[in-house]
Amino acid sequence: MLRFHFITLFEEACDAYLRVSILGRARSQKKISISYKNPRDFVSNKWGKVDERPYGGGPGMVMQAMPIVKAVQKAVGRRYRSTKSVYKKPIIIWFSPSAKQFTNKDADALLAYDKIILVCGRYEGIDERAKKIMKTLGTVKEFSVGEAVYTGAEVPALAIVDAITRRIPGVLGKDISVEERRIASSAVYTRPETIEYGKKKYKVPVVLRTGHHANIDAWRKKK
Fold it and tell me: Residue 141 burial (CB < 10 Å; 0-12/13-18/19+)?
């Protein structure tokens, strides 16, 4: 089973997506597990405050390093031995708009791990020292999911979990269901063959109705 651990202030925002459709079924079939660690549970102040003003000035607030580190440490747990009797480190994902773009190849590579920890920052980001400390707890990978800046890293984290989970054998039923492993097109069609709207008819391309697989694949490659 592949275990995902979210370090987030907003568990409910993540779980709403992770309990439905393919991901929800993967959880019920014990192909993946999801757990959450809230940085607010690792502070000593009575307000659950995890942010402070940035050094050097600037707008907004910055998440403190230690609540994040302690949450990650809790998710890592005690080190354990693999079947080859060697210590296997978990992978810790850190998000940044300027980091390497996450790709399908990265999703395939992450399947080699059995514990993936996703650090979801908020506000103006997380104190950079947290990333340095986390390197003592596991392997840290830094990714971007698109060039846009999001309110929090929960959205990129969910995208990564989705991309990885669909590659687990049996999650999609057949391996060919993973789009990038077959000849796919951005343009897809289904029944009915003809749609009428505004006195105009919209038809499915002829090549898709021929049953000629070589011609269909050639058409999809062009698309």
Answer: middle
